[in-house]
Amino acid sequence: MVAGFWGTIGLAFDLTGAIALATLAIWLWPRLDRFGNAGVWIVSALFITAAWCLAVASASGVFVSSVAESARNLAWLMVIYRLFASDGRHATVAPIRPVLLALAFVELLHLGVDFGLSRVAFDSSVGRVAFEFNVMFRLLVTVGGLVLVHNLYAGAPREVRGELRWPATGLAVLWAFDLNLYTIAYLAARWPVEIAAFRGLAAMVLTACFAMATAGNRDALKLRPSRAVTFQTFSLLVIGFYLVAMVAVAQWLSYAGGNFARLIELAFLTLASAVALVVLPSRSLRGWLKVILAKHFFQHRYDYREEWLRFTRTIGSRGQTSQPLGERVVQSIADVFESPGGLLLTPGDQGDLTLAARWNWPEIEVPAVAFPLRALAFFERTGFIADLDDTRAGTAANSSDLEVPRWLLDDNRAWALIPLVHYERLVGMVVLDRAQLARKFDWEDFDLLRVIGQQVASYLSENASQEALAESSRFEDFHRRIAFVMHDIKNLASQFSLLARNAELHADKPAFRADMLVTLRNSSEKLNALIARLSRYGNGAVDKLEQLPATDVLETVMDRFRSNPQVVLAEKREVAITGNRHSLEQVLVHLVQNALDASEPESPVFLSLTVEGLHARFEVLDSGCGMSADFVRNRLFKPFVSTKSGGFGIGAFEARELVRAMRGRLDVESREGLGSRFIVYVPLAAATDVYQNMSSQDQKVA
């Protein structure tokens, strides 16, 4: 029965070894160049060793197993010779060939003896002598092989040893196992079945060594389990050991308990189960296990990839259900140290720190001035991370310069103080609640906290910049409205000033008085329209769009410049448009006035109205100084950029926005020294009706 047990184990190891060897040989076949001239022989030796494992596993007979083992040894001896030849030592080391030939002769002699013994029947005494001779032959080959392996590695140049380390280790393990096996067989005068069962394990070690030697990247073969897998595996092992120990103790109690064995066993199982239910879910126990595993199983305390991914997931989460940024900042740092809560302090109006957010720490009382301004310079200058336990004990570094508020020192749950520094400017501080498994911070904790603190500080600074930009945008909108109002008031003031100067000269003339009344009425209407438009100047909107004759707008503009002979009406068409009368008049008046300002006093400015497609085309053409393409593209429609002394630089921008609000567009053609052409396109009334009918039909179909 014992032999059958060890035979089963040997069968499992031999089959596994054969599979591993054949797999490696097949995988290595297209990569023979990795071992140079020895590649073909290594693949052949791997296949032959796999065949030997199968022969041993199948129990095909002593002679078949012996032939397979001899073939295996001869193949690996040839591999050793080719490895010697790869660096030229086969020509300089004289004993190599004689030793190899002697070992090959021993193997062949051994095969001959085995073949003869398999054909002739002997009594038990002769069989015992033959067994000892066979064992001696094997010992000679294994010892010779180990000597060759030692010389192969020890005599190799230093730069070659790295390539020979794993092959030499694999062969040494294979023959060292055989050396011990045959030595025990010789001394015991019998075949040690218990030890021979593990020969397949030696073949598996050989496979692993050659796999490491074959891999292009040795580091890829290193086992690097993640911290989560290690912790879970260790937890399962602890649970398994616990269950085994509990069963063992229960069995012992059942044997030693006498009449009360059953009662004692059940009582122990009940007590052990109760203890397990209390202890195993403990966060303190899990924290202790993580610390122990990180300390003894890994080079670094943290899995930086996992920590970084968790940090970015926490700090970058968005959506309706996500926490505010301040709470996410605290959580992203607290999660690293298993801290259950924390606070975020940010600068207030006076520069001292005030409470900005709290995460899972509602019971701590935070004063209005959480951190005085005078104590912040040290943290801003040094980025010092304060372990508050050291501060309470008076052992903190830089304790003479460090000032921590009393409310933090009095609360024993306050554990750490992390400054958030961005470009040498303190943008906040995070206070961490004490973890259940509190520990001392080390250099790795401080390094990670500094990196995370800088990243968090950049998020806070970016968020503050976005808020300041939004506020600035609102102020800009307000200032733009005021600038538009001032621009219109300036134009009205110019009209009133001109009217006052002309009144001093022509007040007694009835025609002037009639014209003055018209001007005052128009100015009053413009002022009322300006007041009505104050609420929509920021987006260039118009009061309302209506159908109106385009010629009426054109005639109003011409009346505005009736006293100036430079303005010439070149062409007009009777068309109806959809727009806003006052806004369109304002745009055309501004364009004509700009054309006059850019032209010589005797140079005409042409105003025309034509039809182009579905739009009415208002054109203002002058032959003035003109504009460069760069000015038209980058400066003409940019607010608050003006070439006029005392100008606001918003006329062209406002004109374009008003035209866009009427669903039209404003085009510019200009060349320096030749003049400019401004073209205003406004939709025809008929086109507007067509668009509206198409839209209503689409809605009905939908």
Automatic annotation (TrEMBL):
Keywords: Kinase, Membrane, Transferase, Transmembrane, Transmembrane helix. Its EC number is 2.7.13.3. SMART domains: HATPase_c. The chain crosses the membrane at residues 6-29, 38-57, 135-154, 166-189, 195-213, 234-254, 260-280. It catalyses: ATP + protein L-histidine = ADP + protein N-phospho-L-histidine. One of its GO terms (molecular function) is kinase activity. Residues 484-686 form the Histidine kinase domain. This is histidine kinase. It comes from Novosphingobium indicum. The lineage of its organism: Bacteria, Pseudomonadati, Pseudomonadota, Alphaproteobacteria, Sphingomonadales.
